[in-house]
Q: What sequence folds into this?
């Protein structure tokens, strides 16, 4: 047995007080009057013996009552397996409030049981101890130590949240809060169902503070999730069939049949069909969407799956531009074949400009820029074209037969592309076409048909640096590159080894190659064309900048909330920081004024919680480190007593107080009813 406050034992010196009282009070003589002396000796002996016995019992009762009262203040305890920490304590409690905690444990949601466990843990500690209450939301008010009463209030306010955090991040937050005070006795509790995908135990193993894991057992549920969705083509076009790819997952051990899939678009709910998904696997399906108008579109996919439903909907948005703008930069006259390629298609808007009359600030407005026969590329133009390409633009380069090799070498080197060497006037025939690449993919129904491929009378040799990352689209019979593609950050550079003029190149006569090549290059992109975001993960968004002035402020508005995100304008785009301000799945509009929507974002809940796989107590114990304890979730109803015994040992001060009261009562009874 040990004492929490052993200095109180000095109060045992007070036991001398009842002994002194006994020695002096009970030794006082009393006069006894009697008329008959015959029984004097007998009465005196009997009375003296009874009085001694009573007085000794009273003295013993007083000594025991006072001793046990002193013991109660010293707070004795019997240490258990866990080392008992004496003095004031700082306690951090993490209550998992992710979607998985909404599942049932017997007849109540896991979250309610977790909150009850948190209350019992707080109750087990003393009033002077300090507490942190932490959830997946990582709110600022949860990053401080509060009193016992305030901790109880914070626990009552916890609700289910779409946020989900790994244990490593939780532990970092707990350590930060515990270190804000000057309390040396620190301990942390993690109350969760311990889904496997959030349990990175290496961080927990290396913890320098005592960590207690409180696992809660949920009823295993079957679950099908709408995992993700994307378009086959990077750009959606009006009056065209756009293929939407959908990925679904079956997270259970049983096959899932008759899963109904629907698509909501333009206010109409269209049944897509029923699907069957094998156990523990995923499938992809496609939906054809025909877009009949330009502008921003909102759409939603849904499946029927019970009882886990947060991942049964998938929101997405996409934009159909009114026109795809193309800029052709010339040194002389424009190329009539380039103009004719887009002349009869209103969806494409082609503009010709001289290289000397360019407004560089307008370059980001074009989806494709074609340099047609430029003799040289100035350093200023080279820099702007590089910036344009890195930010997601498409650049097609047709050099001039009389090109300044040095200027092109400098430009192409900055673009990390193979360089022009010498110009050769000899006939070469294109023989290979890469139909696996996006530009020519799905263009030809019969890939083995006799296509009329280009023939050149003069062309540049290209360097063959393997580090340049060239992807050949069209190649000569001798293996040389005719048309190469280079990815540069978010955009693409297309480099042709031959000029576009008819004297050197008959590409313009090969309509089955030239026309689709231009169309696909105009709509291609290496930029991440995401149609949906994930709450809690995608905290940084990008959009085209439309700042009217330095005082303009971008806003995001959802179904029920509107807020001002963190924002920074960089060139032609604005970078937005959401910073956990989005908590509900749905559509969010970006605007400077509500009448003009600049961008639409769709946010979905994180699918981490879709995987209903948990670590049981044995798994947790096997992975726990030396400072990690696993508390049985089947512990008796008095969880406070269990925690109290773990943190303070078997507490005996209550028994000491009870015994002190009992001995005081015995003293009163002896004095009141034992007459001598």
A:
């Amino acid at each position: 047995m040990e004492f929490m406050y052993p200095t109180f034992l000095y109060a045992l010196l007070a036991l001398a007080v009842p002994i002194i009282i006994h020695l002096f009070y009970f030794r006082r003589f009393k006069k006894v009057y009697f008329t008959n002396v015959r029984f004097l000796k007998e009465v005196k002996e009997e009375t003296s013996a009874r009085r001694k016995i009573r007085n000794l019992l009273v003295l013993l009762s007083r000594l025991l009552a006072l001793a046990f009262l002193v013991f109660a203040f010293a707070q004795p305890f019997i240490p258990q397996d866990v080392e008992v920490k004496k003095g004031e304590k700082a306690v951090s409690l993490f209550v998992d409030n992710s979607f998985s905690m909404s599942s049932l444990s017997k007849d109540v949601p896991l979250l309610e049981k977790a909150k009850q466990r948190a209350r019992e843990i707080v109750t087990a500690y003393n009033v002077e101890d300090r507490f942190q209450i932490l959830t997946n939301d990582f709110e600022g008010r949860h990053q401080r130590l509060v009193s016992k009463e305030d901790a109880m209030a914070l626990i009552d306010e916890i609700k289910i949240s779409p946020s989900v955090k790994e244990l490593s991040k939780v532990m970092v937050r707990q350590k930060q809060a515990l270190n804000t005070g000057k309390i040396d006795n620190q301990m942390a509790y993690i109350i969760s169902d311990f889904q496997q995908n959030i349990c990175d135990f290496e961080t927990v193993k290396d913890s320098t503070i005592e960590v207690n894991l409180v696992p809660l057992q949920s009823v295993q549920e079957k679950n099908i999730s709408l995992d993700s969705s994307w378009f086959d083509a990077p750009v959606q076009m009006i009056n065209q069939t756009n293929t939407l790819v959908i990925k679904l997952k079956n997270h259970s051990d049983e096959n899932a049949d008759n899963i109904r899939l629907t698509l909501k678009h333009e206010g109409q709910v269209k049944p897509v069909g029923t699907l069957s998904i094998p156990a523990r696997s995923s499938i992809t399906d496609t939906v054809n969407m025909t877009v009949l108008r330009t502008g921003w579109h909102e759409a939603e996919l849904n499946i029927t799956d019970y009882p886990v439903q947060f991942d049964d909907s998938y929101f997405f948005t996409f934009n159909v531009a009114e026109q795809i703008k193309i800029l052709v930069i010339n040194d002389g006259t424009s190329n009539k074949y380039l103009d004719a390629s887009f002349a009869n298609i209103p969806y494409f808007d082609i503009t010709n400009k001289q290289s000397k009359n360019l407004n560089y600030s307008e370059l980001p407005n074009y989806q494709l820029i074609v340099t047609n026969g430029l003799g040289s590329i100035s350093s200023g133009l080279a820099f702007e074209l590089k910036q344009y390409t890195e930010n997601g633009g498409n650049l097609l380069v047709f050099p001039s037969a009389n090109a300044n090799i040095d200027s092109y070498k400098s430009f192409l080197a900055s673009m990390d592309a193979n360089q022009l060497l010498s110009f050769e006037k000899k006939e070469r025939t294109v023989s290979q076409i890469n139909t696996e690449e996006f530009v020519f993919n799905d263009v030809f129904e019969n890939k083995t048909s006799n296509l009329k491929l280009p023939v050149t009378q003069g062309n540049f040799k290209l360097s063959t640096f393997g580090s340049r990352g060239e992807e050949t689209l069209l190649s000569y019979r001798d293996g040389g590159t005719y048309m190469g593609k280079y990815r540069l950050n978010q955009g693409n550079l297309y480099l042709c080894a031959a000029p576009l003029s008819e004297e050197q190149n008959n590409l313009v006569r090969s309509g089955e190659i030239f026309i689709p090549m231009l169309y696909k290059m105009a709509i291609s992109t290496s930029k991440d064309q995401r149609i949906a975001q994930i709450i809690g993960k995608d905290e940084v968004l990008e959009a085209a900048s439309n700042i009217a002035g330095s005082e303009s402020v971008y806003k995001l508005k959802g179904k029920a909330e509107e807020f001002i995100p963190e924002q920074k304008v960089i060139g032609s785009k604005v970078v937005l920081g959401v910073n956990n301000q989005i908590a509900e799945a749905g559509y969010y509009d970006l605007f400077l004024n509500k009448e003009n929507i600049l961008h639409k974002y769709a946010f979905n809940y994180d699918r981490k919680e879709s995987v209903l796989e948990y670590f049981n107590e044995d798994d947790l114990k096997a992975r726990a480190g030396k400072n990690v304890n696993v508390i049985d979730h089947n512990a008796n109803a008095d969880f406070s007593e269990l925690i109290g015994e773990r943190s303070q040992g078997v507490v005996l001060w209550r028994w000491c107080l009870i015994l002190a009261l009992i001995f005081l009562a015995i003293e009163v009874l002896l004095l009141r009813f034992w007459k001598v």
